[in-house]
């Protein structure tokens, strides 16, 4: 895994939804699905790069989809084609290899890393169902439709409603914690493995500062290095009644 702390050129940038930005950057690094980069396009404040997951990648470029929520993402959103930004990464473990028919279920910005993941699994010849929850409006509909064997969008409401998880051999999820917890519980009941990608505030991205420490069934782990992807039941385990 290469770590590229040098400048990447913006190849394209556009707003694809309400405060949702699709950014493509030139890089020689090659991520795996579920990994993330720290993006930085400023001199002093805010101090740290912002973790953003890989939405897509191909030879020489990586794509991100992020929501403007604060200072860092505001600055990133104002970049123009040919501007340079610091691209550090790829970091994290990414989603594991899973066999059989796979369900990818996402919510909100958690949909972004599932796009790259679905594409890779589909390219390997696996059957991949992508089920995505959006609060109000679907963005990048064409891209999500092309990424998987079947793509289903849920706008408003619960993305888990009407889901038959027993149709699948494994489930990968990213999104709000209550949604991921529900998915892990359903997978547990169906007897299939689940993997969750979790979000924590981050600083170094390489396991040195402990800012991203998370509690798991087997003790404290660093989300940036040991994750962000964990087995579902490593994270959602506390109340055994919840997952039994
Ligand atoms: C591994 C990882 C992958 C991520 N991938 C994506 C992605 O693909 N697309 C995307 O839009 N966002 C993603 N995020 C979240 C993104 O990093 C934050 O939205 C961003 O850092 C906010 O920076 P800011 O300076 O704009 O906002 P800040 O001013 O730092 O914060 C603004 C608000 O966002 C909240 N916030 C900031 N960072 C996080 C975080 N890590 N978790 C929860 N809340 C946070 C703050 O509490 C605050 O309320 C990811 C986070 C992690 C840890
Ligand atoms: S961000 Fe520093 S240890 Fe994870």
Bound molecules: flavin-adenine dinucleotide, FE2/S2 (inorganic) cluster
* Structural class category: alpha/beta
Mean pLDDT: 92
Tally of alpha and pi helices: 7
Our estimate of the beta-strand percent is 25-35%
Shape: globular
Overall radius of gyration: 17 Å
State the distance separating the first and last CA atoms. Answer: 37 Å
Main sheet specs = 7 strands, antiparallel
Which percent bin holds the helix content? 10-25%
Strand element count: 15
- Physical arrangement of strands within the biggest beta sheet: 4-3-7-1-2-6-5
Residue stretches low in confidence (pLDDT < 50, at least 5 long) are none
The ordered H/E elements are: EEEEEEHEEHEHEEHEEEHEHH
Features:
about 240 residues, alpha/beta, 7-stranded antiparallel beta sheet, 6-stranded mixed beta sheet, 7 helices, 15 strands, about 35% strand, binds flavin-adenine dinucleotide
Descriptive overview:
With 244 residues, the protein is of the alpha/beta class. The protein has helices at residues 71-77, 111-123, 141-147, 177-190, 223-226, 232-235, 240-243; strands at residues 7-17, 20-26, 36-40, 50-53, 56-58, 61-67, 84-91, 102-107, 128-134, 150-155, 170-174, 194-197, 213-216, 219-222, 229-231. Helix content is 22%, strand content 34%. The longest helix is centred in the C-terminal third of the chain and has 14 residues, at 177-190. The termini are far apart. The structure holds flavin-adenine dinucleotide (FAD) and FE2/S2 (inorganic) cluster. Residues 202-205, 207-212, 222, 224 line the site of FE2/S2 (inorganic) cluster (FES). FE2/S2 (inorganic) cluster (FES) binds next to loops.
């Amino acid at each position: 895994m290469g770590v590229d702390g040098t400048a990447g050129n913006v190849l394209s940038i556009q707003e694809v939804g309400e405060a949702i930005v699709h950014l493509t950057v030139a890089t020689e690094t090659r991520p795996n699905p579920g990994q993330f980069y720290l993006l930085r396009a400023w001199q002093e404040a805010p101090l740290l790069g912002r973790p953003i997951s890989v939405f897509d990648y191909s030879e020489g470029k990586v794509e991100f989809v992020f929501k403007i929520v604060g200072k860092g993402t505001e600055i990133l959103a104002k970049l123009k084609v040919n501007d340079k930004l610091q691209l550090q990464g790829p970091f994290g473990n990414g989603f594991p290899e899973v066999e059989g028919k796979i369900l990818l279920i996402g919510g909100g910005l958690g949909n972004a890393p599932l796009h790259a993941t679905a594409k890779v699994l589909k390219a390997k010849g696996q059957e991949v169902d992508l089920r995505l929850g959006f609060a109000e409006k679907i963005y990048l509909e064409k891209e999500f439709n092309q990424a998987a064997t079947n793509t289903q969008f849920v706008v408003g409401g619960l993305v888990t409603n009407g889901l038959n998880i027993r149709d699948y051999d494994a489930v990968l999820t990213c999104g709000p914690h209550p949604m991921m917890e529900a998915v892990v519980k359903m997978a547990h009941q169906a007897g299939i493995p689940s993997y969750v990608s979790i979000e924590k505030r981050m600083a170094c991205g390489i396991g040195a500062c402990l800012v991203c420490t998370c509690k798991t069934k087997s003790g404290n782990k660093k989300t940036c290095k040991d994750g962000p992807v964990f087995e579902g039941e490593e994270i959602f385990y506390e109340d055994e009644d919840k997952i039994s």
